[in-house]
Write a structure and sequence with these properties.
The chain is of the alpha/beta class. Helix content is about 15%, strand content about 30%. It has four helices and 40 strands. A nine-stranded parallel sheet has the order 15-18-21-24-27-30-35-38-40. A seven-stranded mixed sheet has the order 5-4-1-7-10-9-12, covered by helices on one side. A six-stranded parallel sheet has the order 14-17-20-23-26-29, with no helix packed on it. A hairpin with a 2-residue loop joins strand 9 (about 100) and strand 10. It is globular and about 60 Å long.
Length: about 400
């Protein structure tokens, strides 16, 4: 194992809404894997801490300690959480002081006896393959870059026999089920990429899965068309989903289209919630976050849903909508930006801390996650930070 890894979280600027400052960027998915996991695999090491004043004290499931920005003493590696390395181990050459990606500094090698104090752009460099993320919307670009290769990597591992009662379009060898349940009549279309179903996952009758696609542990596909998407652990998915990333523990149990969107953890989409992912002009999508315009350069971009977002039945979301952490979306006046902890679409009223914690205390155990005192404290701190904005 090489030196311990420290991940530097980017500042919570508007481009990182709705996740910046609400969860470490390193805990978001770039393809199948979280950015932290991509760095750990690339460097063959483990993360000692995530650094950033705005994420200090974050606590959820299995993340390393989240600390304020502080000096790092060598031997160590400090890597940017807004850079997602591609697959493959990086062999760092002797004397290298920086890793670069796309011409930008991606990580700093801190030798024994030295101390890293801040970002810099000098010293011997070594390029690596990967994606530099400009904001939360670029997670969709990373999904498109990495998903096919990430799913194909699973083909090297032995798995359960291909379900005989499934309908398979393409080579059955491109399906990997690891202790998953597949009901009769499920369609696997692997002509464009591999399909992976992890342990405890379910694909129920009436589901059509088009690869590349990754279905995480305990996630249930309840029916409908899903394609080119990633579903983290313990999600419930029904309806049409295309080019989307479900970070984990999200609930879309009813019909409705979700395309080119990112869902944070503990999101619940009411029946019929639908995202638009393409402008009528077919032009590039611009986000507006609290009055700040952000040019994404993307033609296809749906909605970015922050953690703990809830939508009412029949919610219709315009192309390039951003919904802040903890928002409850219902009623008239829905625009393309919903502020954190909004109670209603306009954000004139806010969900108070007690109400937010009460709901979380009911929701987490539904996915067999204990609502501990530490989680309560972290969520209370999250509410205080974001409801004051």
């Amino acid at each position: 194992m090489t030196a311990p890894l420290y991940l530097l979280d980017p500042l919570p600027e508007p481009a990182w809404a709705p996740f910046g400052g609400a969860r470490p960027v390193s805990e978001l998915r770039a393809g199948v894997w979280r950015i932290r996991e991509r760095w750990e695999a690339a460097l063959g090491t483990r993360t000692a801490a995530i650094l950033g004043d705005h994420v200090a004290g974050f606590h959820e499931l299995d993340e390393p300690p989240c600390r304020p920005l502080e000096p790092v003493h060598g031997p160590a590696i400090v890597a940017r959480a807004d850079v997602a390395p591609a697959g493959g181990r990086v062999a760092i050459a002797p004397g290298v002081e920086r890793l670069t990606c796309g011409g930008a500094t991606a990580a700093w090698i801190v030798p024994e006896g030295a101390t890293w104090r801040r970002e810099h752009h000098h010293g011997a460099e070594q390029p690596i393959e990967g994606v530099v993320l400009r904001g939360a919307f670029d997670l969709l670009g990373a999904l498109e870059t990495f998903l096919a290769a990430d799913c194909a990597d699973f083909l090297a591992h032995a798995a359960d026999p291909t379900p005989e009662h499934a309908i398979i379009l393409g080579d059955p060898a491109r399906i990997r089920c690891f202790g998953a349940t597949v009901e009769p009549g499920v369609v696997f279309d692997v002509r464009a990429g591999a399909i992976v179903l992890e342990r405890g996952a379910e694909a129920r009758h009436g589901t059509r899965i088009e690869g590349p696609c990754y279905v995480g542990p305990g996630t249930r596909l309840m029916g409908g068309d899903v394609r080119a998407s990633v579903f983290g652990p313990r999600c419930v998915v029904r309806g049409e989903v295309s080019g989307a990333c479900f970070t984990g523990y999200a609930n879309k149990a009813h019909d409705g289209f979700v395309g080119h969107s990112v869902l944070g953890q503990w999101v619940n989409l009411g029946a019929g919630t639908t995202t638009s992912n393409l402008k009528n002009t077919y032009g590039p999508v611009r986000l507006v976050v609290a009055g700040t315009p952000i040019d994404t350069g993307r033609q296809f971009l749906g909605t970015l849903f922050g953690d703990h977002v809830k939508t009412a039945i029949g919610t219709l979301l315009a192309t390039g909508t951003v919904v802040g952490v903890g928002a409850n979306v219902f009623g008239p006046g829905l625009g393309k930006y919903v502020r954190p902890f909004a109670w209603g679409s306009t954000g004139v009223e806010l969900l108070d801390e007690a109400g937010f914690l009460r709901t979380a205390e009911r929701v987490l155990p539904r996915r067999q996650v204990e609502f501990t005192a530490a989680r309560r404290d972290a969520l209370a701190a999250l509410h205080r930070r974001h409801s004051a904005r």
